[in-house]
Amino acid sequence: MKFFEVAPPKKVFEVINSFSPVSEELIHIDDALGRVISEDVFSPCDLPGFFRASMDGYAVRAKDTFGASQSLPAILRIKGEVKMGEIPKIKVGEGEAVKISTGGMLPEGADGVVMIEYCHRIDEETIEVERAISPFENVIAPDDDVKKGELVLKKGKRLRPQDIGILAGLGIASVKVYRKPKVAIISTGDEIVPIEKEPPPGKVRDINRYTLSAFCRSLFAEPVFLGICPDDFSRLKDLVEEGLRIADTVWISGGSSVGTRDLTLKVFESISDFRLLVHGIAISPGKPTIIGTVKRKPVVGIPGHVASALIVAEVFMSRLLRRLSGEDPVQDPPKIEARMTRNIESAPGREDYIRVKLIEKDKQLYAEPIIGKSGLISTLVEADGLVRVDMNKEGVYEGEKVEVIPFVSKGLW
Amino acid sequence: MKFFEVAPPKKVFEVINSFSPVSEELIHIDDALGRVISEDVFSPCDLPGFFRASMDGYAVRAKDTFGASQSLPAILRIKGEVKMGEIPKIKVGEGEAVKISTGGMLPEGADGVVMIEYCHRIDEETIEVERAISPFENVIAPDDDVKKGELVLKKGKRLRPQDIGILAGLGIASVKVYRKPKVAIISTGDEIVPIEKEPPPGKVRDINRYTLSAFCRSLFAEPVFLGICPDDFSRLKDLVEEGLRIADTVWISGGSSVGTRDLTLKVFESISDFRLLVHGIAISPGKPTIIGTVKRKPVVGIPGHVASALIVAEVFMSRLLRRLSGEDPVQDPPKIEARMTRNIESAPGREDYIRVKLIEKDKQLYAEPIIGKSGLISTLVEADGLVRVDMNKEGVYEGEKVEVIPFVSKGLW
After folding, report:
1. Strands in A174-296 per DSSP E
2. Which CATH class is domain B25-47+146-178?
3. Given B29, B47, B84, which is nearest A210 (Cβ)?
4. Looking at CA atoms only, how far is residue A144 from chain B in angstroms?
5. Is the CB of A376 less than 8 angstroms away from the CB of B103?
6. Which residue has the higher pLDDT, B260 or A90?
7. Residue B37 forms beta bridges with which residues?
8. Helices A233-246 and A258-269, packing angle to 10 deg
9. Per-residue pLDDT reduced to its tens digit, A284-301
């Protein structure tokens, strides 16, 4: 018995890639960690902007050291010292040397730095240099780090500490980024109660509100919880419409029952300009997922089962949020290679996502499938990541090399 | 010429592991993503707490299906339907079946669920069941997900969305976590100017303030910037003392010069109860790193060079922050296997950290070393991670398999 025509995951990724990023805002770089820049950044200047020593030592004219060796050192006169942060007043002439620290500005006349390790002070005024340097050795040229006009950060890049650092170095204190995508989250189902309540038999607490919210935050998106909605068409429709007004995407989590699944789609279809793009995905768990748009805003029906919901979030919603955040290209996470500890069967015709724990033994990483009924949240708590079993495979075997997809928010790594 | 006795990285990790976590606080689970729990959490109840269907289908007595097959189906009377979220009023007797959705409560008398795919409705009151189920098939028992009294989350775990989810499921709305470690950051050096200023020749903008702050945030720590300090003993001492008053650890970044390095240590040594633990690390870059404690609070001198500073942060300060955050065990990040695209020499007797870019070609991941002078921030902007070259190795070779350590804050992955 088939409920609907399911889409292969590849098609779902294509659908998600067709969505447009949210609008932009200007923020200070101190707030920019993890945000995605929305325009190419070109350097307004050279960095460091002057000739700089990259080693502690003596600034010299390189040719004065030519031929120098331990047995036949070059003898140079010390003319003084470069002070950090200042334009040196001393010039370096033929046969002269000036003491300099890493980061100091190269004095006029000098074209290289001899590392202090190769200099021996004979007296107050004289050093022996026991190694030759070539011109510009141990020196950073004014545009060695960044050239004026150079593209330093490409639009679509998610900013890491070093990316923020290069902006700081160039004096770019504010940067245009995409807004944090706002995600309206609705939990549905007659069986769902708020977590503060003791659920009577038959009912369960609203887990998805919290896992999906935390998941959004882990991707620098902003969750807005609209409430728990019973299986009631007009109340659900009101909430979806509210979500469309205030957020960039609306996610309905639930319900587990066939009836509720129908309700989500019915509500979506009752909204004008709704376009259905995905009605079921050929994966397990997570099949009953619905993706569509209302005036280009993605609306999503996520399975109510807590484990399915989070796996759909990890596999598809992470990409949706990256896309809305303006990440370009949206990248796949690097996989971790491991060997399966046991056989796991899988039905062909769908992609299976197996929860696994990573175990290191004798310097080999193993992926241990989590045993337990598949809908349970505890199986995800035990897991470190997911192993994807290809649509045309019938399973994975003990000892087989697999690629583990780490969770997006995996306790940092 | 040797400036000081450098510590092998292993010893530095031991030093860091000896530090104690910061104090605790009680927070709502909605704020708990990425935070580390500070006490074991045991379940106050069974989850889900009742017998629950894990499939859409019919609740039956398993023995009524024994022997059923496609050619010889069991014939059962439909007695009604279980409503989601309710205690079923109907009982299942011999030869009876009750329609049920995933998540529904199993009615009295039933001990299993036949998937809807194997049930054929003959008329309003009758179904044919064409497959036998065993007792409790497609059923989640009251304590299948979590047993009352079970340890669900261990002290020292950094909370992911699913960990927050299990707390929600158990009705634990607030959780004890370690505070965010507060990191006082001081930039030193006569050559450092605020990023808003146009630096005259010889001076550079304060990059480290921003990279180190963002780095702290990426590990859920809270940076507090105390200011740019010139190379002046008493002003630096005042700032370190202020840092010790308000923060959990104090980091001085800078300076590049030998003089400034001496200054950092002199200031530390002038503070009572200072204990020097690490004076130089056998790594490149990052050698002139100082680690000590003042009344058990870690104080750190980080090299002023922007690239060295961030590599020291990635390799050692990440572990320091994880330790202060209460993470237990402090885990190594999973490495990514790749092959070097070219030879890189390395001096034995120290660990080298090579900046690399990951490139995928023909399904093989390659680590491409970033060419460029080593102190430059641009080399880190281009890099995806670091390759560690062991102390006793003289380099890595083209084609050699290496482990790439992804950056802590790597644009998410």
Report:
1. 174-178, 182-188, 192-193, 204-205, 222-229, 249-253, 274-279, 283-284, 290-294
2. alpha beta
3. B29
4. 8
5. no
6. A90
7. B177
8. 50
9. 999 999 999 999 999 999
Judge whether A203 and A192 are in contact, CB under 8 Å.
Answer: yes
**Residues in chain B with pLDDT < 70?**
1-4, 255-261, 409-413
- Domain A52-140 sits in CATH 2.170.190.11: yes
Distance between CA atoms of residues B20 and A353, nearest Å: 39
Chain B neighbors of A30, CB-CB under 8 A: 210, 213-214
> Interface pTM (ipTM) of the complex?
0.94
Q: Say how many CB pairs under 8 Å bridge A and B.
A: 335
Residue A187's nearest CA partner among A165, A163, A209, A171 is A209
Domain boundaries, chain B: 9-23+180-324, 25-47+146-178, 52-140, 336-406
Interface touch B170/A231, C-beta < 8 Å = no
- The CATH homologous superfamily of the domain defined by A336-406: MoeA, C-terminal, domain IV (2.40.340.10)
Nearest residue in chain A measured CA to CA from B3: A117
Which residues of chain B have a CB within 8 Å of the CB of A202?
50, 84-88, 104-105
Identify the closest residue of chain B to A408 by CA–CA distance: B413
Report the predicted TM-score, pTM, of the whole model to 2 decimal places. 0.94
**Helix and strand tally (H, E) in chain A?**
8, 28
Closest CB from A167, A197, A202 relative to B105: A202
Phi, psi of A251 (to 5 degrees): -115, 125
